[in-house]
Amino acid sequence: MVIEFLKFRNINTISPSNGLNPYRQRINFNGETTNDKFESSSPNRFTSEFYLRKAIQTNPRITKILTEVNVPVKLNMKNLNALLSTHAADTQRIAEGIAQNLPFALQNKVNMKAISDAAYLHDIGKALIPEEILNKNGKLTPLETEIMHRHSVLGYELLKESNIDKTTLNLIKNHHQNAKRTGYPFADKNFNADLNLQIVAMADKYSALTEKRAYKDQLDRETALTIIYKDVQDGKMHPFVFKALVNYTNKQDLQPNPIR
Fold first, then answer.
1. Of 7, 1, 10, 14, whose CA–CA distance to 227 is shortest?
2. Nearest-CA neighbor of 45 among 163, 199, 178, 168?
3. What is the DSSP string of 85-105?
4. What pTM does this model have?
5. Separation CA 258–CA 254 (nearest Å)
6. Rounded distance, CA 71 to CA 128, Å?
7. Cα–Cα separations (whole angstroms), residue 53 to 27, 48, 62, 70
8. Full set of structural domains in the chain with CATH
């Protein structure tokens, strides 16, 4: 598929965030390169059953959000672990790939640590969404849709009292928002879908479109990109972020054993 980028409209200006923060590396005594402080900085420390149950117990806002839609507080670790090993890991890989394929001037405006952690943790709130809604083989009812839409705020609340930085928390909370503010949760006129958010949101959507779920078949690369390109045309996503996604997926197709 040939995608033209010559006549993109001037879409909402991307505002800068924190500078690029690639993981620092060091060489151990065996001469191997390792990530510095990986264990202490890994987002996996927030996905254990112990951590999540403690977060639920200490944050009454979580129970309130679920009570408003008549959903009991029930933690489903099986669903969460399955999601983390598939969609979350895939979204994290794609988000990092998008960032690395941006023009150099924009790469300097990416908070790599924030987008990587947020991409991995963005759906953690789905651990509290009932199984029959999360994996429903069919269209959701309006109430079920409302319940499903609460997962992003639930993820934010589960992690709010941790030591995760505010940038990452806001990416998790708003990963279904866009530059037109037509997503969820509600965003007022002051909301800014900055570069970091657009990277995470686009990575999430591409991963979701290209994977099989209970209610849909997986889409091929070209079909998924065509759908996302409509968001660019509608002013929801910036063309440079989309072009970075296209470049990343092109490179994956050229690999002898592509990840996707």
1. 1
2. 163
3. IIIIHHHHHHHHHHHHTS-HH
4. 0.83
5. 7
6. 9
7. 37, 9, 11, 20
8. 42-254 (1.10.3210.10)
CA nearest 202: which of 166, 172, 238?
238
CA distances, 15 to each of 110, 198, 209 (Å): 10, 11, 27
What are 149's two structure tokens?
């839409």
The amino acid at 173: K
C-alpha–C-alpha distance, residues 47 and 52, integer Å: 7
pLDDT band at 180 (very low <50, low <70, confident <90, very high): very high
The predicted-structure confidence for 106-141, as pLDDT tens digits, reads as follows 999 999 999 999 999 999 999 999 999 999 999 999
In terms of DSSP H, where are the helices of the chain? 38-41, 49-58, 60-67, 77-83, 89-100, 104-107, 112-121, 131-134, 142-149, 151-159, 166-173, 195-209, 221-233, 239-254
Paired with 175 in beta bridges are none
